[in-house]
Amino acid sequence: MNPMPERMSDHWWWLPGMRPGRRMLLWHILPDGQPEVFDLVRRYQEKLAGVDGLDLVPAEWLHMTTQIVGFEDEMSGEQVEALTAGVAGRLAALEPIEVEVGRLWVHSEGVALGVRPGRGLDPVRQAMRQAAAETVGVHPLDGEPGWTPHISVAYSNADGPAAPVIDALDLRPEPVPLRVAAAYLVAQVRDGHLYRWERLAEVASGG
C-alpha cells in the first residue's frame, strides 16, 4: 500500500469510453454471506460519516473489482459465454481462498480495505486475465497485470486536504476473514456518485 496522501481528489472523473448509462462488464468478488466484512465496513463508515467530501459505499454495492472485461456493446454474446466458460474452467481447478480484509488504505480518491496476504488472490485474478485474453482480449482500461485487491469504503468527491480523513481513522478495527469461493460477472454502470450493476454470472471455485 502507498503512504497516506496529503490531499484528496475527486474520484468521479470519467474513464475513456465511459459515459452515463454505458454498461461495462467486470469480474467482481462480492462479500455475500460474510457479515463480518459488512460489519467492519460499517464501523469504518461510522468514523467517516462526519467528514465532508466523501461518498460512503452502500452495503448492497460493496465489491472488490478484480478484472475489467470491457464495454458490453463492444462484444458479442458468444464472446461473453466463452469468457464465462473460460473463467469457470480455471476457477474449478482452484480451492476457495481465505484472506484477511481490513488493511486500511487511504488513497487520494478514497478509503479502502486491502487484503492480507497482498498477493493471496492473484490466482483468481490470473484465471480471469487468461480467460479474457483468449476470448475477448485484455481491455486497455485494465492496463497492467499488477492489482491491489481492496473493498472501497468511501470515495472522495472533492479536492482538499487528506488530514480530516486520516484523523477520523485514528482507531482502526482489526481485520476479519474473507473467504473467496466465487466470482461474479457483472454489467456495471456509474449512477451519479455510485457504482451499481446487474449480476450476469456466478462462477464457483472448486472444492
Automatic annotation (TrEMBL):
Pfam families: 2_5_RNA_ligase2. It comes from the Bacteria. Gene3D superfamilies: Cyclic phosphodiesterase. InterPro entries: Cyclic_Pdiesterase (IPR009097). This is 2'-5' RNA ligase. It comes from Actinomadura citrea. The lineage of its organism: Bacteria, Bacillati, Actinomycetota, Actinomycetes, Streptosporangiales.
